[in-house]
Amino acid sequence: MPLQNRVNPNGAIFATSARGTFMGNRGRALHNDSREIVRLFEGQRWIICLLDFKGRRRQVMSPGLYTELFFLDEAVALAAGHRPCAECRRERFKALWTAGRSRLAWTEQALFSLLRSNRELHHARIGSRREKITYQAPLEALPDGSFVQIGDGSHLVWERALLRWSAEGYVRKEPQQSGLTVTVLTPEPTVRCLRSGYRPEIHKSALAL
Fold this sequence. Notes:
The chain is of the alpha+beta class. It contains 5 helices and 12 strands.
């Protein structure tokens, strides 16, 4: 039976046998000794990591250690409220958190702003009742890499089209409709970074549509 460690664009953690292309975590352990998810997050540090980094290996959902979470791609992880790891994805992290902030040089002072960035993102992704925060926006105003909810489906905004997400990959491509207002899943601070030129890595299934 697959573990409950996969994340969808709404930020929900679910079980599937399909594999993701990125991993991450939400602070300390979210699971119990039976490897069952018992909390949505533990702290404000939600990150996106590489599947392979410096040959490190670990047992998934080990007792007392952080819970490994998996995403179809980076765009899904961003929509769920995560940001690139400052260790294994240092350059991507730098690109994300300096996008739209041209006055902030990448110096030690910028590194000290990490906790403030975590706080800003946390308040934009989770409400007081631990519900995902979404907002309404014109579809045509959203940058590539944003995720939106239309009906019962989550869709990636990509190159003037909408790509419908599934756990296995993107399954349908539709042209964007002008004049449409949508529910945005990607947190607003991250959308600002996407608008400033940050381009997330997306799953190979998008190229086949």
